[in-house]
Amino acid sequence: MNYLDQKTMKKLITLCLFAVAMLFSTQNTIAQNTLEINAEANTKTKELRKVIKFEQTKMQDVYKAYQEYGIAFKKISNNVAGNTERLEKINTVLDERLQGILTEDQYVSYLKHFRDR
């Protein structure tokens, strides 16, 4: 009976180590996605600022808007074609956020250069 208990314990410990290893790999994937989203938000903010020339004080707000957009887009990125309504909604949310941050002229310029409206 003692042998079965040791064998069961070895299996349990192995299972626990495997679960911990899976948790570490999941955290690395999440961290990598976050870094990618943040880098993309930073790039888009700088690109928008080059074209529209908005004030330095608005950069953080624009960055956060693009960051939230990136998070929402990442959730549907595996099936964009099947999520056209959701994509339109997150694009609309981004546009509304930027409309609240930018002046009217800046927002019109944003739409012209980045949304083709």
Descriptors:
4 helices, about 120 residues
Global geometry: elongated
What number is the mean pLDDT?
Answer: 84
Largest sheet, in brief, is: none
**What are the segments in which pLDDT stays under 50 over at least 5 consecutive residues?**
none
Radius of gyration: 23 Å
Distance between the termini: 76 Å
Residue share in helices?
over 70%
Spell out the helices and strands N to C.
HHHH
Discrete helix count:
4
Oligomer: single chain
Count of discrete domains = 1
Strand content: under 5%
Derived from helix and strand composition plus strand pairing, the structural class reads: mainly alpha
Tell me the total number of β-strands. 0
Describe the structure.
The protein is mainly alpha-helical. The protein is 85% helix and 0% strand. The longest helix has 51 residues, at 2-52. The N and C termini lie far apart (76 Å). The mean pLDDT is 84.
